[in-house]
Design brief:
mainly beta, Methylamine Dehydrogenase, Chain H, four-stranded antiparallel sheet, 2 helices, 28 strands, globular
Amino acid sequence: MSGRRRALLLAGGLAVTLSAPAAHAEIAVRSFASGPVLTAGLNSSGQLGTGTTTDSTLFVAPVGSPKSATSVATNGTTSAAVRSDGTVIVWGANPSGLILPSAGATILSPTVVPGLSGMRSVAVGGASLYAVSTAGQVWSWGTNDQGQLGLGDTAARSVPTQVSGLSGIVRVVSSGGTVLAVTGGGTMYGWGDNSTRAAVPSSATVAVTRPTTIGSSIVGITTGGGASFTTTTSGTVRGWGLNTCRRLGTDPATTVVTSPRTLDFGTRFVNDVSAGATSAVAIMHGGGIRTWGCNTKGELGRTTTASVAAEGDAKARTVAGPNIVEVSVAGQSVLVRDRYKGFWVWGDNAHGQLGLTGPAMVTVPTEVTFGVVGMGVQTVAAGGVASVIVRERT
């Protein structure tokens, strides 16, 4: 850790401004410098890309690890990255050959997906992948039983296919079979699994097979555990879907919220939100991060395992720690990156997915270092049981 960053954290780094509200839309684009890929955690499906199925509790480099990845994603069993030349590579589980037809059931090392170029970012759902081009178009392939490919049917695809009706997209997120996308102008779309109304609120529970407009003035999107959240241009957070652990602030906890409701953060401006299976994390403007939901694996980062509802004492929901600019939550594991490219983790570590050897559960934000002073992290992606990050170039 640099001396400057250490001084800021010890002085109460939560007070440092993350970004000006006027620049809030930059959160949605998630543009990062390129660097090498590292992985950690469970590897039963080759999701670490190391050429074996041996787990790792430390971050390791996949075989032939790209030295210039700009975007990474994982669902815990299948991982993907975009290289600086705009091509997409995948590794890990390959169910029914839908991710990469030329490979077997597992792809043990990063392999190029044919037919894709000019890509900017990638997302991985349950067993479906999404690539967003620099022109803002979306390609999808893989499982499609809930219409999660957005192609108007439920037929699986093993070849990336462009999703019609979408343009200007800057970000796609997916969890299970639910998919959200947002344009640079703030228009949000949803499609796929809608059994908890997480894809398209106030709609029937049947699969939504084509992108459907569900919001405007949106800059941040996330979905996980059957619930979805958005961050608006005014800095407010809205959520809908399954109210597990009272993440949506209503009682009882099992209630399905069918219309987006605003969560109470007082007068604080929220930059972005990420949702996992049981919890959610918000990046606050000028004030660190807040966490809420269930906490059985320490995923709230609050030293205890007591749950916290979305509504309530704001101070009780604040996690002391670094100045976060990026957060990724999956399952019950949390990865974050601070403004100085420091890398912090907490929550479930049963498979070493936090890159820490030893504890199966981490209840406080803990910095992961790599033994090289000044070598930070460019971007992070949690997968619940495995994680993928992009380091700075060596």
